[in-house]
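Report of the visiting student (M.T.), summer placement. My assignment was to run the structure pipeline on a short list of targets and document each run. The first record concerns 2Fe-2S iron-sulfur cluster binding domain-containing protein.
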Amino acid sequence: MDGPVDEAIGGDPCDPYDDGVIEIRVTDFAGEVHALKAIDGWRVMEVIRDWGLPIKAECGGACACGTCHVYVDPQWVDKLPPPTDEEMDQLDQIYAVQENSRLSCQILTAQELDGLELQLAPGSEVDG
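After the run finished, the structure tokens were exported:
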């Protein structure tokens, strides 16, 4: 599948030897798991959106809405930087928050997050 990473790096998005490219595994609302390639430094919300998964992400990554809410797989929670006070304030205002809830706009891709597993949370789905 060609996608945003393929266009950005000019290579095969499935090539595990591309420098600076990681894989994020995202479970959608139907339970389907998607392996998404991403370049270091992208917001996870952008990766999910740019690969065409149905995530609302109304504020575009400004940490102002909570519509990019995801559940982080428990094995990854402690590997992420802790949420900021601003992110915690947004999480306090949204539906279906769990201990492993994060806003995907506040997670930046990095080599140490290669293999990160997330699930789209209720309230982040696109209306329609």
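The two ends are 25 Å apart (CA to CA). The chain is about 20% helix and 20% strand. I thank the supervising group for their guidance throughout the placement.
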